[in-house]
């Protein structure tokens, strides 16, 4: 029976590995030569969004540059440094093309109805200082590439339906001063030392500290944890010994069960042998 299950399991594994990622909406943008690549990226972003109030109406793919467009700000060199369209009732998806706007310093899309995932390409915006995607319907995990945003100072992802853990490689977010992850469905630990001000309320499964024992549930991480020396050193030590005790206990438990099973097996075989002998004798 076990041998028969092996090909089935392999098939299942193959199916899991080969399942396609979410299909991207078709994008009919053909780029003639000489088109400004930031125009191209912004037009793709527009095509992925639904814009009921027509606030992106003057975005036009024949423009020389996008610097006169609504919601777009440029540097003196006519490079796109800002995309600011809060509270415009935009819905649809945020296109991965945002990763091609590598001069962006500020992205404000809060208080819309955008859904789908936060594109991993956002990690290419290495000049980004402010990112606000709060109060939308973003779901899925926060892409790990966010940890590459080394200039990021202000990050708001609150009031979405994000799940999973905050990227564990977030130690590189050394300039972060403000982090709001509240009212999502995030889980796991968020290092308290990440930002001076941060908010994680409304995530039933999140932990406010690096150790699972210190999970505060719906409470924000108290700042005293990092300020109070005695507390800071005592807690991890306690949880370490606690973990060791659990590991010790379960090892002993496993060994006992193994012994018991072996004993049972021997007793059963012994008994069977005796029965056979008995049968032979009785014959
Ligand atoms: C925003 O869009 C939704 C549909 O996506 C619509 O039901 C709602 O009335 C709109 N709100 C405003 C203020 O336009
Ligand atoms: C980014 O730009 C390049 C060329 O400029 C293009 O080939 C690529 O498709 C763009 N990526 C996205 C996600 O739009
Ligand atoms: C976020 O959601 C909470 C709970 O639903 C609500 O009380 C709060 O006003 C929301 N915040 C924003 C900025 O929308
Ligand atoms: C932090 O940045 C450095 C330099 O870019 C990189 O080598 C390292 O892998 C990054 N660490 C994490 C945890 O992302
Ligand atoms: C939150 O995430 C957990 C698993 O991580 C899932 O079981 C639960 O249904 C999610 N809740 C919502 C409201 O999405
Ligand atoms: C530090 O923690 C101890 C015990 O947990 C407490 O008595 C003390 O008041 C705390 N000190 C500060 C500055 O919070």
UniProtKB/TrEMBL annotation:
Residues 36-75 form the Leucine-rich repeat-containing N-terminal plant-type domain. InterPro entries: Leu-rich_rpt, LRR_dom_sf, LRR_N_plant-typ. Residues 1-26 form the signal peptide. The chain crosses the membrane at residues 245-268. The keyword Transcription does not apply. Keywords: Leucine-rich repeat, Membrane, Repeat, Signal, Transmembrane, Transmembrane helix. The keyword Isomerase does not apply. This is Leucine-rich repeat-containing N-terminal plant-type domain-containing protein.
């Amino acid at each position: 029976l076990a041998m028969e299950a092996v090909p089935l399991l392999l098939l299942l594994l193959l199916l899991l590995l080969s399942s396609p990622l979410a299909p991207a909406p078709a994008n009919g943008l053909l780029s003639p030569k000489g088109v400004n690549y930031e125009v191209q990226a912004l037009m793709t972003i527009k095509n992925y969004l639904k814009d009921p109030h027509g606030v992106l109406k003057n975005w036009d793919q024949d423009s020389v540059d996008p610097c006169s467009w609504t919601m777009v700000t440029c540097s003196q060199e006519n490079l796109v440094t800002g995309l600011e369209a809060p509270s415009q009732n935009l819905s649809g998806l945020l296109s991965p093309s945002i990763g091609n706007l590598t001069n962006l310093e500020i992205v404000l899309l809060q208080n819309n109805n955008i859904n789908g995932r936060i594109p991993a390409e956002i990690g290419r915006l290495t000049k980004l200082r402010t990112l606000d995607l709060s109060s939308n319907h973003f779901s899925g995990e926060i892409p790990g590439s966010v940890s590459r945003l080394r200039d990021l100072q202000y990050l708001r992802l609150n009031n979405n339906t994000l799940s999973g853990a905050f990227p564990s490689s977030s130690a590189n977010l050394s300039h972060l001063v403000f982090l709001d992850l509240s009212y999502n469905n995030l889980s796991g630990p968020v290092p308290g030392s990440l930002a001076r001000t941060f908010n994680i309320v409304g995530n039933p499964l999140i932990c406010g500290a690096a150790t699972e024992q210190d999970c505060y549930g719906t409470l924000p991480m108290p700042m005293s944890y990092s300020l109070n020396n005695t507390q800071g050193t005592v807690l991890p030590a306690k949880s370490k010994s606690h973990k060791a005790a659990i590991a010790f206990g379960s090892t002993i438990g496993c060994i006992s069960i193994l012994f018991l099973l072996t004993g049972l097996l021997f007793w059963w075989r012994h008994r069977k042998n005796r029965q056979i002998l008995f049968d032979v004798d009785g014959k």
